[in-house]
Design goal:
Length: 94
């Protein structure tokens, strides 16, 4: 992927800003660049950050870890043979 000199200089400035502030995403870097005399839109910054392999560091949701105090209920129908109607019932409480 070939980049011209202007784009390479912009990428250098993005890398410099990202090294100083690794928690900045494309929006914050696009807002930070004019302070140093460089102007680029958020989408261009996002595309260049993706090309350089840069991704903001932030706390992501941790939804797949179970709480150690939550009880795990056994599945009571695991080895049961269901052979007639109305033998088992279920309810969805979601």
């Amino acid at each position: 992927m070939g980049f011209n000199a202007e784009t390479l200089e912009l990428m250098r400035q993005i890398d410099k800003a990202f090294t100083q502030y690794p928690f900045f995403g494309s929006r914050q870097i696009a807002a930070y660049l004019p302070r140093n005399g460089y102007h680029a839109g958020r989408h261009r910054v996002r595309r260049l950050m993706k090309a350089m392999g840069l991704e903001a560091i932030y706390k992501r949701p941790n939804t797949s870890k179970k709480h150690p105090e939550n009880r795990i209920y056994p599945y009571l129908l695991r080895n049961m043979q269901i052979t007639r109607p109305n033998q088992v019932w279920c309810a969805d409480i979601t």
